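User: For my dataset I need records formatted as: sequence, then C-alpha cells, nothing else. Please produce one.
Assistant:
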Amino acid sequence: MSGPARGGAEDDVLRRIPDVAALQAAPDDVDYLADPGLTTALFLAVRLPQPILFEGEPGVGKTEAAKALARVLDTPLYRLQCYEGIDSGEALYGWNYPRQLLGIRLAEVRDAQLDGTELFGPEYLLRRPLLKAIEHSGPRPAVLLLDEIDRTDAEFEAFTFELLAESAVTIPDFGTVRATHPPVVILTSNRTRDLHDALTRRCLYHWIDYPAPDRIAKIVRRRVPSSAEPIALQAASAITRLRSLDMDKPPGIAEAIDWVSALTILGVERLDVRAVDQIWGTILKNRNDHDLALARGADGWSETHMPDRVGALAAPSVEAAGLAVGFSTALRRAGLTVPPDRAARLAEAIRLVPPHARDALYWTSRVVLVSRREQFPVFDAVFAAVFDGMLDPADSRGGSTAPPPVGGEPRTRPTASDGRPAGVEATPQHPTMSPGGDSESGAGPARDTILAMASSEEHLHDVAFADLAADELAEMRRLVRDIVLATPTRRSRRTRRTPHRSARLDLRRTVKSAHRAGGDLIRLICSQRRTRSRRLMLLCDVSASMEPCTRVFLSLPQGSVVGAGAEASVFSTRLTRLIRQLTVGDPDQSLARTASAASDWAGGTRLAESIRSFIDDHGRRGLARGAVIVVLSDGWAQDAPEFVGEQMARLSRLAYRTVWVNPRKVAVDCQPLVGGLAAALPYCDAFVSGHSYTALTEVAAAIRAERPSHPERNRGPDNATR
C-alpha cells in the first residue's frame, strides 16, 4: 500500500507544461493536432488535477488524445477497454489462485501455519490496469484511460467513484491502495447511454466535435506522409460531406486515413468516380450507408461550413473568485445545474489559465462547468450575455439594487407553406467580438439568443397545446423534451455475479474459477439475472387533424430517444421510422429533419395500414415484443373500423402494454363510440389525454405502470378501456 503523494511529480509536470501554449505545441510534436478547447481541457485535467470526460461520436480522436498526452508527459498509458458486464476482476485486481494453492501445500509440507494476511499478500495479487495506474512509481503520473465508459453498467460506474474522487482503490482482504502520483484519468464516451450524474460531477467535461476538412487533411498528411496534399484535402472534404448524410455509421478520421492510404497505394492523385467506386469499403462499413452514398452521388452531397470561432477579450477586471461566483450564478438562473464545488474549481482554473483572450476564458469555463453536450446552447447564450458586454457579472450576486434577470425575446421560426417546419441552421456558434466590444451582429440580434433567466413556465402547464402562441409553443417543446419516460423492468437473459448465497449457483463461472485454481474448487459463485427497462416504442400521428399538437408530441419521443433509448415512428398515410432524426440536440433542427423524412406530413390518416406496416416490418422482428407501445393519435382514420381492430389486436398480443394518447379526450362531448378509435380501445391498456403539459404527466404514469400479475388482457370489443 502506498503512502501520501510526493511533490516531485508536480514539479516535473510544471516544467514540461507550464501553460496552455506549451501544451498546445507539444501534441503537434507527437503527431496529434489539438484545437484550443481540447488543449485547455487536457491542461486543466493535468494541473488541477481532475478526471476528464471526453464525449463525441466514434472516430473523432478521443482515444488518440489520451495517447498523445501520455507521449507528451513521457509516461505510461494504462488503457481499460470497457464493455458490458466488466467487473473489478477485469478492471482492478485478481488473485493468483494456483500460486496460493502452491503456498498452502508448501506450508502443509513444512507443517507451518498460514494466516489470511500471508495468503492475500502483494505477491499473490494480479494487477489489472486500474491498480497498475494507481501504483505507478513515477516520476510523473501515469495516464489512465477508461475507454467507452458508456458501455458499462451502473454498478461499474459506482465502482469507479473512489478512484475518480480520491485516486485510491479498496481491495477486500488487502486494504486501500492510494496513489503516490495520482494518475491523469481520462474517460471517453460515445453517448450510447447517459452517464450517472454522480460520475459526471467528479469529472471535467469536453465534447470533441468532428474537425473541419482542413484540419482533417493535416491529420491525414501526418499519418500518411506519402500522400499528396490535393488528395488529402479532397478526401477530407468528401468525408465531411458524407457525414452530413443520414448514415447509420458515418465515417470518422480513422476511415479518412485508411481511405487516403488506399488511394496512395493505388497511385491515385485526384478523386474521381472510378477511384471512389473501387474502394468504398475503406470508408463505409454498412450496406445501407453504401446505397445512400451511391444514391446521392458526389454532386448531391451538401457542403458543410464550419465558421472560425475567434474573438478577443481583455483580461477581466474582477478577481477569479468573484468572476467564478457571478458567472456560475448566472448559469444557475438560466436553469443549468452548477454545484458550488464546480464554481470553486473554476476559480482555481482561471488562476491556472489567465483569461487574456475570450477563447481562453470560454474553453476554461466550458470544460469546468458543463457536464453534458445538451447544455452547450444554454452555456453559450449565458456566456455571450455575460462576457459580450450585455450583462454584468456583479448583477448576479443578489444585491437589493440588482436589475431583474435578463430575458430574451421570443424566437420564432418560419413555417413552410405546406405546414412543415422549415429547416434551421441550428449549430450554435460562439459570438465573436468587434474592436468596440459589441457583438458582430449588434445588440438587437444578439439579445435574441439570450436565454430567459427567470422561469415563467408554470402558467403554461394547464394550457392546451392548441391554444399556445408561437413563443409559448417553443417553451412548451423544451419542457416536454425534458419529461422522463420510464418503463417497467424485466429480467434479462444476462446474469451477473452476486454474493448472496440464496441466488442460483453459476456452474459455468464456478468451473472456470476452479480451472484457474488448478482444478480445486475454492469457492462457489452464485449469479442472478439482470434487470433492464422494457423497450419503449412511440407511434406519433402527424396527419392534418393532429397539426395543433404534432410539434409538441414530437418533442416527447425526441427526449425519450436521446435519454431512454426509445424508438419512434411517425405516420399519416404511411409509416416512417425515425432512427437518427430525433438524436439531434437542437429541437428545431430535429423537427425539420423529421418533417423532411415524412413525405406524408399533414396528410390523411391511414391508422390501420400504418400499424400493420409497423408490425410486419419491425414489430414481429423484436421491436414490439414485450415493449410498451404508445400511440399518440386522435383516432380519426380513413380505414375501416374492423381493419383497425384487427391490427390493434395483433399489436396488443406482441406488446407488454399499449397506451393510447388522444388530445381530444378532454373534450366534454368526446365519446369514442364509433370509428377507428372505438375499434382500437378494447385492445389498449390505458386511454389518457395528452392535451397539455399536466396531462402528459398522466401519460408518463401510464407508461411507467406495471401490468397486473394475472391481467385480463383486452382481446375483444367487450373489454373497452375507459
